[in-house]
Amino acid sequence: MAKSLLTYSCSACGHAHKKWAGQCDGCGEWNTLVEEAPMSAGPASSSLGATRGRKVPLMDLDGDIELPPRTLSGVQELDRVLGGGLVASSAVLVGGDPGIGKSTLLLQAAARFARNGLKVIYISGEEASAQVRMRAQRLGVEKSPVRLGTETSLRDILTTLENEKPDLAVIDSIQTMWADNVSSAPGSVSQVRAAAHELTTFAKRKGMAIVLVGHVTKEGQIAGPRVVEHMVDTVLYFEGERGHQFRILRAVKNRFGATDEIGVFEMTGKGLREIKNPSALFLADRDKAQPGSVVFAGIEGTRPVLAEFQALVSPSPHSQSKRTVVGWDSGRLAMILAVLESRCGIPFAGLDVYLNVAGGLKVTEPAADLAVAAALLSAREDTALPADTVVFGEISLSGTLRPAGQTENRLKEAEKLGFSGAIVPSRSKTGAGCTLELKQFDDLIGFTEQTFSAG
Ligand code: TYD
Ligand code: MG
Questions:
Q1: What's the domain range around 17?
Q2: What is the pLDDT of residue 311?
Q3: How many angstroms is it from 100 CA to the middle of ligand 1?
Q4: What is the 3-state secondary structure (H, E, C) of the chain?
Q5: What's the CATH code of the domain at 311?
Q6: Binding site as annotated, residues
Q7: ipTM of the complex, rounded to two decimals
Q8: Annotated binding site for ATP: which residue ranges?
Q9: pTM of the full predicted structure?
């Protein structure tokens, strides 16, 4: 019997499986495996006779290494996330939920890059040219020299790029692209993978930068942007909460710059506006000295950002108490609760715990531990912390505190925004010129010295 040529790929992460299964082995998502026809094989060949490949000793590369040229868009929030502007011949993936503003961001960026001298082509596979023009008008960039194409056939796009020779091509979106040598439907894992591979290799060979837009998908039939993450140099995700105007552009992979860098924007009636001082924005709606509210001095990439943690602790009506987290890791919350319970003797059993980071920010730093602990205790005791105080520091499982990195930058940002005190682990190195009054955690909520003194 002929062997089946079908395989199954996960539409969320691209992981290949020989057999169908309910759950992906790669990422653990359920119901994401879809049938895939294999890619058409190239001409039968052995490695013998191939002439293109050759080996180059690493040392020979010495001498002609130059830093890749970069172009700034002038949108600082974008340039910083890219690692200092757009690198020539690089491939960038911009992922995000449908409707979050990716097309808006990229059309605005395309116009800025074009204004700064790049030849830019924007290819939309989703919208008709009249729609894109209307959007351009709304954004006030209709006069910019960006070339516009509405095309989904990969072959036509490559021909266009070959003829036009742009410095930057934006492909919106990769899920709408369609390669005629792959038999599955547009948006399937093999189509998305093939199209992304063709486009990025073509762009690198021709020396043009390419930006691929990828929708984060919920249903299994359409491949998500994770499928192409490994093919590109830079992966940016555009995030935001529904109902909030803030949008955060986050670098999760960058061969040319720092990851975890964020750019903050606000969606307005005339497109995205950059927010140069995100701390002020994230703290804008803060009420003074509320129980459960704590300001955390964090670092996002290379920049200090202040954010407010809000906690609510209430008696649980159910036998199993609830833990709900928005903007922080739920596993980390469980750890902090366990430390408070077993090391400090402060039980949370029978209490529902809700934790939220205001403004739709997602905090990933362990330095937020202490801020979370402070918010939980303040909520539990119904006692507000002083409103002009920031909190940061890491908590270990033993209940000791560890100083966070970049203490000085955090304190400076807090000072700039009018805070006068900070609660930090006692060994924190603050640097000269720190005028903030430093307090230790145990000063505040009557902690025992042994448990929360610096380790
Ligand atoms: P869009 O860029 O089309 O999202 P994506 O490409 O990620 O799917 O943005 C869609 C939303 O943004 C839409 O709900 C309308 C809103 N929007 C504004 O609020 N202001 C604007 O100037 C524009 C162009 C869009
Ligand atoms: Mg779009």
A1: 1-38
A2: 95
A3: 6
A4: CCCCCCEEEECCCCCEECCCCCECCCCCCECCEEEECCCCCCCCCCCCCCCCCCCCCHHHHCCCCCCCCEECCCCHHHHHHCCCCEECCCEEEEEECCCCCHHHHHHHHHHHHHHCCCCEEEEECCCCHHHHHHHHHHHCCCCCCCEEEECCEHHHHHHHHHHHCCCEEEEECHHHCECCCCCCCCCCHHHHHHHHHHHHHHHHHHCCEEEEEEECCCCCCCCCHHHHHHHCCEEEEEECCCCCCEEEEEEEEECCCCCCCEEEEEEECCEEEECCCHHHHHCCCCCCCCCCEEEEEEEECCEEEEEEEEEEEEECCCCCCCEEEECCCHHHHHHHHHHHHHCCCCCCCCEEEEEEEHHHCCCCCHHHHHHHHHHHHHHHHCCCCCCCEEECCEECCCCCEECCCCHHHHHHHHHHCCCCEEECCCCCCCCCCCCCEEECHHHHHCCCHHHHCEC
A5: 3.30.230.10
A6: 96-103
A7: 0.97
A8: 96-103
A9: 0.79
